[in-house]
TrEMBL record:
<feature type="domain" description="Type II secretion system protein GspF">
    <location>
        <begin position="210"/>
        <end position="326"/>
    </location>
</feature>
<dbReference type="GO" id="GO:0005886">
    <property type="term" value="C:plasma membrane"/>
</dbReference>
<dbReference type="InterPro" id="IPR018076">
    <property type="entry name" value="T2SS_GspF_dom"/>
</dbReference>
<keyword id="KW-0812">Transmembrane</keyword>
<feature type="transmembrane region" description="Helical">
    <location>
        <begin position="152"/>
        <end position="175"/>
    </location>
</feature>
<keyword id="KW-1003">Cell membrane</keyword>
<feature type="transmembrane region" description="Helical">
    <location>
        <begin position="305"/>
        <end position="328"/>
    </location>
</feature>
<protein>
    <submittedName>
        <fullName>Type II secretion system protein F</fullName>
    </submittedName>
</protein>
<feature type="domain" description="Type II secretion system protein GspF">
    <location>
        <begin position="9"/>
        <end position="129"/>
    </location>
</feature>
<keyword id="KW-0472">Membrane</keyword>
<comment type="similarity">
    <text>Belongs to the GSP F family.</text>
</comment>
<feature type="transmembrane region" description="Helical">
    <location>
        <begin position="107"/>
        <end position="132"/>
    </location>
</feature>
<dbReference type="InterPro" id="IPR003004">
    <property type="entry name" value="GspF/PilC"/>
</dbReference>
<dbReference type="Pfam" id="PF00482">
    <property type="entry name" value="T2SSF"/>
</dbReference>
<keyword id="KW-1133">Transmembrane helix</keyword>
<dbReference type="InterPro" id="IPR042094">
    <property type="entry name" value="T2SS_GspF_sf"/>
</dbReference>
Length: 341
């Protein structure tokens, strides 16, 4: 289940529960829309409700379809009798993640469009050079410098560009899946100026937000910390779950328990420790989460600017290369014309 679907599902479930609607009827309404997998999951939840199985248990049995955080929030709501509140809090969390993603995509949309437009303009030039013929016969001069002409050349060019995009997508996918343990290189990645600190700020904002959310719902600290680390989608951070669990079991404070992981930065832990001393864990973490949320918004702008700059530079380099190639061919023509017969 995607985060947008999780947000809508949580909010509708919370709204229906607040109105006193029957859970089976709510799930039946959900089963009438969405993707095939979504409808199948809703039907499975309905079967669980009919059999008297708690909703969180049925969600957990769906082979990871429902996010771990959503399952835990549902379980806490069932245990504490605050199901409506926990569902609304889960919805707010997923809406927040959707808003962050939308802001990032909005920031890179225009430069990305320009890059795609530049690619198709070059493909069009390649196509035209293969169709038109000079008055003296032969082939048109290769203005692009790629040695490609006509429909076949345009298709080859577009295929190569598509392959490049596919390679970038494959790299992103491999990083997300921790291929060859690449998440262990995250500390080195954080050392990259501008880019590294921005990524770390966004990660810490998500971690703090989930930790505050789960503690506020009444979930025990061990599971709250585990869900917070899991929310980062990084095996590097998930490696801190066990050390934090052991420290909490030994009676350490939350800040000291997280310090035992040797993963989180000192400035973050100091802020957390100060926040702990000023109030309850949930209240202090909410303040810290709001602060990191503001930092994350600035970090997203930084990432958008960096990616936009990279795209702009790519477009400019392509145009400069084409202009230089055209200029050299024009100079070559004039040089040949000025040579003595």
């Amino acid at each position: 289940m995607g985060i947008a679907a999780a947000a809508g599902f949580s909010r509708r479930l919370g709204t229906g529960h607040r109105a006193g609607a029957d859970l089976q009827m709510l799930l039946g309404a959900e089963a009438k829309g969405g993707t095939t997998r979504y409808r199948e999951a809703m039907l499975a939840l309905i079967d669980g409700v009919k059999d008297g199985v708690p909703l969180s248990k049925s969600m957990e049995a769906e082979n990871g379809y429902f996010p771990n955080l959503l399952v835990s929030m549902a379980r806490v709501g069932e245990m504490t009798g605050r199901f409506e509140r926990t569902m609304f809090m889960a919805a707010d969390h997923y809406d927040h993640r959707v808003a962050i993603r939308r802001a990032f995509l909005k920031g890179i949309a225009w430069p990305l469009f320009q890059l795609i437009a530049a690619v198709f303009v070059i493909a069009l030039m390649i196509l035209i050079m293969g169709i038109l013929t000079p008055a003296t016969g032969g082939e048109m001069a290769d203005m692009t410098g790629f040695g490609l002409r006509g429909p076949t050349g345009a298709l080859i060019f577009l295929s190569l560009v598509g392959l490049a995009f596919a390679c970038v997508a494959a790299i992103v996918f491999a990083i997300r899946r921790n291929f060859l343990g690449c998440h262990n290189l995250i500390p080195l990645f954080y050392m990259i100026p501008k880019l590294g600190p921005a990524i770390r700020t966004i990660t810490l904002a998500r971690f703090t937000w989930v930790l505050s959310l789960t503690l506020d719902t009444g979930l025990d600290p061990i599971r709250s910390v585990a869900l917070a680390f899991d929310s980062t989608d990084s095996d590097y951070y998930r490696g801190g779950i066990q050390p934090a669990r052991e420290a909490i079991q030994q009676g350490q404070s939350l800040a000291n328990s997280l310090r035992a992981t040797e993963i989180l930065p000192d400035d973050f832990l100091v802020q957390l420790e100060v926040a702990e001393l000023s109030g309850t864990d949930a209240e202090s973490l909410q303040t810290l989460a709001n602060e990191y949320d503001q930092r994350a918004q600035m970090a997203i702008k930084t990432l958008s600017m960096l990616l936009s700059a990279a795209i702009w530079i790519t477009v400019v380099l392509i145009l400069i290369a084409m202009i230089i190639n055209i200029a050299m061919r024009i100079v070559g023509v004039y040089s040949e014309a000025l040579e003595p017969i």
